[in-house]
């Protein structure tokens, strides 16, 4: 189309203002939830110990969502995070029960999750199979391996907890905020990775328009492989954090983390199709999600209705987001 | 040529292979009781897979089918519980079935609305539907497994029509009807077209919104039907009875050779896929292999089947 | 008066595509629409077929006011169209595509497949073609797909037929048959709006011709009362010829031998000197685009030998080509050239961050490089961080240019570099190419615009149906000769 006169400043600023709002949308949701939560609970919510609890809980969802986020940037999806999470727990249980040093146990379980991510990455990058299907298959395989190795009961992991507490003693309140430190630290490192390595722009290019990425000389295979592998690593770390927080777990404990990991990414404003987004926003998304659940618990909302509410919230959110996008484009 | 045969009949070849495997390693596998169970379970999964297949034809996705099925079983149990004292049994059954199917249609309609009018990606829209169905299922009976008060209803699940279990016979009849619709009516062409090239369809003056709404509602109704048979067979309504079935349904569709990009495929492949999954499950139970390993088998078969069917498109 | 457009205006965000178009079509008339890329021809067709329902102005069909608010309504009003993006459903077969949205039913509301098949076969015979109607359309070759699209439009028994660039993939025999059908339709009293870039067709089939430029009707004439030069002049306005400047030609830098793609392209050989611009031209589908893409490592079926500075190089992927200093500016910038949702700076940097062997990048450097090229190529953006999708077509193309230039390639291949670009930006791009040649780069351009090829290239290759039909030195040939070579049909039993 011929551009005779591109309608200038007024239009342009309005458009950009709307797009900023869109990328900060997680912040808006978070702020709203925070205020609602404080009001509804008559201040109980804003109690520092409750807030800390929320943040700690959010750490586990957050770190899994981080790995999911990178995969989604490239236009893919990781459905196996729940099962791989469980696999990590299984490996931890098995090792600790066999008397392995907790540090080594963590290493082994991370090795396991990284391998799963690697396999996913290899299959996705080298065949034309859609990520949905590949990670679906991995989900089933990982879950079954985990359950076979350890069985379905929860195991206590006091050695793990003690080891981490010991090593975090040097920091005031170290043992307490360990999960939070790991989470925020990981997000920070990943954001450095995105900004200062070629993989950042490459990831977004693949998600935004894979064909253009190929024509531009992006090594699509390598990037996809890397992204799924990092995803596996994040999932493993999440499992370790969960075991630390609640002192042990069973291999099925990973399943409830799949959907929230995706929801956190979306609430944070990343498009499900990839090509744009920001890992810091996903922090907000994870916290917002945790606040929602926390709020509902405090209000003693029937746990079964909680799922309904989450469903409704997610739907309305995505709807509002897409309408906003349309508005900012028409501007 | 060889590749063509593999693609078209691959699923049935795998089915034959799996049945042969059963014959080999499971002594006495093919007794009437076992066969009956396999047919019933395949039918239940088959209903979910049928709905899923139709949705996938239009390049969509339905993740709510499992929970809708569970919800349906709960609604049936609940209706019987609350009505069986006041109303004649025949009427109770009718009401229960209508409520269950109606709820399925409602969730399906909701999914369809979200996808067509709110333009929400199907993946997310149906996750929402899934959660809502889950919530409703739990809410109605507080999550307590409830037996069906009208025990005569169980015959729907366990009875037979000319030696064929009723659920399976029903499924086959429904599938024949839909086969005719897909191949011999304009709606069928429109369904495939919507998945193949939505722009071309719009340009031809076809109302794609209407097509998609119909499809998602059908998916909900079929999922509810599956749940109905599940309740009839187990005699119980439980909110987690069909947990995880949505993924099995998608697996059945993919093993059945239907491309996830939509626009083409046959509905018989997914039925074979569902049967394959159920036979594998039975083999594992039969040989007392750790039930956890069943997922491993299914996962691997899934990957192989998809690899064989995804060779089609280029970049 | 069958169709009348009165002062039709169509605006898009930031762009006015049509500014008050007046147009008339009579029964039994073929009215051609011509104009450069972006003049507004396709917009008119899209409005008339109901794809763009929000337009201003009046449209009258059979002297009755009509508002075309959807494709369905356009159909009901008797308008059928064959559009540029062959909108067929790839997974359905030809029969289903032809009757899409217009399916014939039997008494029982089932598809009347037999009658449809008979009608379609008869239609195919009328068009003089032989197509397997039961194969999925995606398995047909491009000319056959075009025939299916044509059949689809014809099957609706319309009053008005809109034809947008339908003949490009056809060979001369098929074209002749299509014209026969068009004449029959004229006799039946239908009105046809015909758009084609092949100006000679206007004189073969048209009754009237309207020239569009910049969204305005410049002039409407009787075909019998005008000629080719006048039409071209009206289309293009006063334009100073733009020439390739003389650059010192060095030694042979880049050479391609025995390039082929089985079943499509045969035995293409060429070489390019330092400072030289080689042009490859031909009709759509002749293979010129695929030759460059194949060299760039994008097509696994491509074979051939490539020599760079006399040494044999093996190119396995775009990245390996770039690392050796060979760059490709693809055609179809929206799909192949740009990641439209990302900022301009990121797009410009996308290639060079991959061609260097380091993993680390410096956002500051990328921004600096981006700003430099924005200045150099005069790209109009509010900021380097602006998303590419908000740029106009010409500026987007400049970003594609910048990307390859930033990667410091010595050999530059460009596929249709001025596709969909207006005259002003074209000149800026030609300027850039001249500068590059002067700096000693070796350049290969493909283009279906013969004028452009003649102006910008030192030597020209003409491709027809996958092989090189002729090689010319620009100073020793002219447009007529090139066009003659291009229209050489595949009559010799291909």
Explain what this protein looks like in three dimensions.
- By secondary structure, chain A is mostly helical.
- Chain A is built from 13 helices and two strands; from the N terminus they run H-H-H-H-H-H-E-H-H-H-H-E-H-H-H.
- With 315 residues, chain B is an all-alpha fold.
- Chain B has one domain (2-313): ABC transporter involved in vitamin B12 uptake, BtuC, CATH 1.10.3470.
- In chain B, strands 1-4 form a two-stranded antiparallel sheet. In chain B, strands 2-3 form a two-stranded antiparallel sheet.
- Chain B is globular.
- Chain C is an alpha/beta fold.
- Chain C has helices at 41-48, 71-76, 94-98, 113-126, 142-154, 172-187, 199-205, 228-236, 288-295, 318-323, 333-337, 344-355, 363-376, 393-406, 423-438, 450-456, 479-486, and strands at 3-12, 15-25, 30-35, 56-61, 64-65, 79-82, 160-164, 191-195, 208-213, 216-222, 252-261, 265-273, 277-281, 302-308, 311-313, 326-329, 411-415, 442-447, 459-464, 467-473.
- In chain C, helix 12 crosses helix 13.
- The chains are: A mainly alpha (331), B mainly alpha (315), C alpha/beta (494).
- Chains B and C meet through helix 8 and helix 9 of B and helix 2 of C.
Number of strands of chain B: 4
Query: Helix content range of the residues of chain B, please?
Result: over 70%
Q: Distance between the terminal alpha carbons of chain A, to the nearest Å?
A: 18 Å
Tally of strands of chain A: 2
Mean pLDDT of chain B: 85
Can you tell me the residue ranges of chain B where pLDDT is under 50 for at least 5 consecutive residues?
none
Q: Greatest interface and its residue counts? A: A-B, 46 and 45 residues
Strand coverage percent of chain B? under 5%
Strand order of the largest sheet of chain A: 1-2
CATH topology of chain B: ABC transporter involved in vitamin B12 uptake, BtuC
| Low-confidence runs of at least 5 consecutive residues of chain A | 1-10
Calculate Rg of chain B over CA atoms.
19 Å
Beta percentage of chain A is under 5%
Number of helices of chain B: 13
Oligomer state equals heterotrimer
SSE order of chain B: HHHHHEHEEHHHHEHHH
Helix and strand string of chain A, N-terminal first?
A: HHHHHHEHHHHEHHH
Please tell me the total number of domains of chain B: 1
Number of helices of chain A: 13
Report how far apart the termini of chain B are: 23 Å
Structural class of chain B: mainly alpha
């Amino acid at each position: 189309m011929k551009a005779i006169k591109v309608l200038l400043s007024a239009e342009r600023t309005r458009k950009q203002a709307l797009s900023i709002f869109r990328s900060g949308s997680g912040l808006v949701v978070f702020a709203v939830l925070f205020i609602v939560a404080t009001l509804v609970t008559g201040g109980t919510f804003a109690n520092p110990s409750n807030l800390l609890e929320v943040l700690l809980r959010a750490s586990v969802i957050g770190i899994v969502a981080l790995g999911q986020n990178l995969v989604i940037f490239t236009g893919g999806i990781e459905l196996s995070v729940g099962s791989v999470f469980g696999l990590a727990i299984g490996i931890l249980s098995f090792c600790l029960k066999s008397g392995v040093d907790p540090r080594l146990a963590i290493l082994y379980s991370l090795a396991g999750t990284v391998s799963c991510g690697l396999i996913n990455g290899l299959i996705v990058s080298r065949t034309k199979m859609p990520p949905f299907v590949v990670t679906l298959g991995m989900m089933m395989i990982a879950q079954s391996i985990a359950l076979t190795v350890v069985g379905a009961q929860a195991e206590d992991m006091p050695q793990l907890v003690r080891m981490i507490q010991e090593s975090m003693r040097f920091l005031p309140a170290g043992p307490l905020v360990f999960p939070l430190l790991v989470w925020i630290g990981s997000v920070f490192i990943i954001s450095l990775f995105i900004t200062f390595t070629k993989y950042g722009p490459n990831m977004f290019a693949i998600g935004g328009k894979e064909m253009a990425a190929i024509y531009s000389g992006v090594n699509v295979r390598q990037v996809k492989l890397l992204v799924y592998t990092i995803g596996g690593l994040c999932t493993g770390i999440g499992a370790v954090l969960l075991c630390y927080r609640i002192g042990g777990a069973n291999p099925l404990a990973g399943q409830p983390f799949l959907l929230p990991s995706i929801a956190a990414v979306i609430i944070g404003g990343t498009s499900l199709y990839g090509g744009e987004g920001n890992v810091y926003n996903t922090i907000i998304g994870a916290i917002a999600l945790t606040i929602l659940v926390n709020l509902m618990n405090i209000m003693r909302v029937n746990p079964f209705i909680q799922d309904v509410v989450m469903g409704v919230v997610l739907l309305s959110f995505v709807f509002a987001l897409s309408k906003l996008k349309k508005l900012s484009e028409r501007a | 040529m060889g590749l063509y045969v593999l693609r078209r009949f691959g699923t049935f070849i795998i089915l034959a292979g799996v049945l042969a495997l059963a014959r080999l390693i499971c002594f006495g596998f093919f007794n009437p009781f076992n066969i009956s169970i396999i047919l019933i379970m395949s039918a239940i999964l088959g209903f979910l897979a049928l709905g899923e297949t139709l949705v996938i034809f239009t390049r969509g996705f339905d993740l709510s089918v499992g929970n809708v099925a569970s919800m349906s079983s709960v609604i049936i149990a609940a209706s019987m519980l609350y009505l069986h004292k006041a109303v004649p049994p025949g009427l109770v059954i009718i009401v229960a079935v209508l409520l269950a199917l109606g709820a399925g249609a409602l969730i399906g309609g909701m999914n369809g609305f979200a996808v067509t009018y709110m333009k929400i990606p199907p993946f997310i829209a149906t996750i929402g539907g899934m959660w809502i169905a889950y919530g409703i299922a739990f809410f109605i009976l507080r999550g307590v497994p409830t037996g069906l008060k009208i025990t005569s209803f169980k015959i729907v699940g366990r009875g037979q029509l000319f030696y064929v279990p009723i659920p399976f016979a029903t499924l086959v009849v429904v599938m024949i009807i839909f086969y005719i619709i897909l191949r011999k009516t304009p709606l069928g062409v429109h369904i495939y077209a919507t998945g193949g090239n939505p722009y071309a369809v719009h340009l031809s003056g076809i109302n794609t919104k209407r097509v998609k709404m119909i499809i998602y509602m059908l998916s909900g109704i079929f999922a509810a039907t599956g749940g109905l048979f599940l309740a009839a067979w187990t005699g119980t309504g439980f909110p987690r009875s069909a947990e995880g079935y949505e993924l099995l349904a998608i697996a059945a569709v993919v093993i059945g050779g239907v491309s996830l990009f939509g626009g083409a495929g046959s509905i018989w492949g997914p039925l074979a896929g569902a049967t394959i999954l159920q036979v594998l499950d039975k083999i594992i139970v039969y040989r007392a292999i750790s039930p956890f390993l069943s997922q491993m088998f299914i996962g691997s078969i899934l990957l192989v089947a998809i690899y064989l069917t995804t060779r089609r498109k280029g970049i | 008066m069958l169709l009348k457009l009165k002062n039709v205006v169509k605006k898009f965000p930031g762009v006015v595509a049509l500014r008050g178009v007046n147009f008339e079509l009579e029964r039994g008339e073929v009215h051609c629409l011509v104009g450069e890329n972006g003049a507004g021809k396709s917009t008119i067709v899209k409005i008339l077929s109901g794809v763009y329902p929000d337009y201003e102005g009046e449209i009258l069909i059979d002297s009755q006011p009509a508002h075309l608010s959807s494709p369905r309504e356009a159909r009901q009003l008797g308008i059928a169209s064959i559009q540029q993006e062959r909108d067929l459903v790839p997974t359905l077969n030809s029969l289903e595509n032809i009757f899409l949205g217009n399916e014939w039913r039997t008494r029982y509301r089932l598809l009347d497949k037999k009658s449809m098949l008979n009608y379609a076969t008869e239609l195919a015979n009328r068009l003089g073609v032989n197509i397997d109607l039961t194969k999925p359309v995606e398995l047909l070759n491009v000319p056959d797909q075009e025939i299916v699209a044509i059949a689809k439009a014809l099957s609706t028994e319309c009053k008005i037929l809109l034809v947008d660039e339908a003949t490009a993939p056809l060979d001369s025999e098929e074209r002749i048959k299509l014209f026969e059908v068009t004449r029959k339709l004229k006799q039946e009293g239908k009105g046809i709006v015909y758009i084609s870039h092949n100006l000679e067709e206007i004189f073969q089939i048209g009754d009237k011709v309207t020239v569009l430029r910049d969204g305005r009707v410049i002039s409407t004439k009787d075909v019998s009362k005008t000629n080719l030069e006048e039409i071209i002049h009206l289309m293009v306005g006063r334009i100073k010829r733009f020439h390739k400047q003389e650059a010192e030609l060095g030694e042979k830098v880049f050479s391609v031998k025995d390039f082929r793609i089985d079943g499509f392209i045969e035995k293409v050989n060429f070489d390019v000197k330092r400072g030289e611009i080689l042009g490859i031209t031909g009709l759509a589908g002749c293979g010129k685009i695929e030759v460059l893409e194949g060299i760039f490592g994008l097509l696994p079926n491509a074979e051939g030998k490539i020599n760079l500075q006399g040494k044999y190089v093996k190119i396995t992927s775009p990245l390996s080509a770039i690392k050796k200093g060979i760059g490709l500016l693809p055609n179809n910038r929206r799909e192949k050239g740009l990641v439209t949702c990302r900022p301009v700076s990121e797009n410009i940097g996308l290639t060079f961050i991959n061609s260097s062997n380091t993993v680390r990048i410096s956002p500051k450097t990328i921004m600096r490089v981006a700003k430099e090229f924005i200045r150099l190529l005069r790209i109009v953006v509010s900021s380097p961080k602006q998303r590419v999708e908000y740029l106009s077509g010409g500026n987007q193309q400049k970003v594609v240019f910048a990307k390859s230039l930033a990667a410091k390639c010595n050999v530059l291949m460009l596929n249709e570099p001025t596709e969909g670009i207006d005259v002003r930006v074209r000149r800026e791009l030609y300027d850039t190419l001249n500068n590059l040649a002067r700096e000693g780069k070796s350049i290969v351009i493909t283009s279906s615009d013969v004028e452009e090829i003649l102006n910008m290239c030192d030597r020209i290759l003409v491709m027809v149906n996958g092989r090189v039909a002729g090689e010319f030195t620009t100073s020793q040939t002219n447009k007529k000769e090139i066009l003659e070579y291009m229209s050489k049909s595949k009559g010799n039993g291909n």
